[in-house]
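User: I'm writing a short methods note and want a consistent example. For Dihydrofolate reductase, I'll paste the sequence; you return only the structure tokens, no commentary, since I'll be parsing the reply automatically.
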Amino acid sequence: MRKVIYWVHTSIDGFIAGPNGEFDWPLLTPELSEYSDLMSDRVGVFLYGRVVWDLMSGYWPTADQVADDPHSVKFAPIWRETPKVVFSRTLTEAGWNARVTADLEGTVRALRAEDGKDMVLTGGAETAAALASHDLIDEYQVVVHPVVLGGGKRIFPVAERLGLRLAETRAFDDRAVLLSYRRS
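Assistant:
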């Protein structure tokens, strides 16, 4: 059975985007980039909410042609080739090897039951909250960056308690820290 992994970058005060939606603060250091590559090897499907989809599809299709950093050059073809599911009630088609559905719970349950590599949800607080409310996230990979944003979009816009157990911690280049949790 496939796992669902929530992979998210956060500030130390718990925000995934700044007060004006800015996402210019995560620093992809060499060690974090290497770990991200290992995560990509585990992934058979990317999961996105519409807002994050708009960001990802606006950059990754041609990132290897316009960026000069090794991570973008390596990841862009992986992103293009990997199947994607976009959860949206307003979007009708997405392109880039993606299908669109409004049925978050049913789609993820069906995908989890299939054989194959794991699925990863990158960012998308509302989508993560919806998956968590249906107990559909198996692993939480939270990368904490050394920045205080002072406001913005919270990592989890939910009021329900989630019981998790720490599975791993790791520091990357003496900057960011991975907190990896699994369901209790």
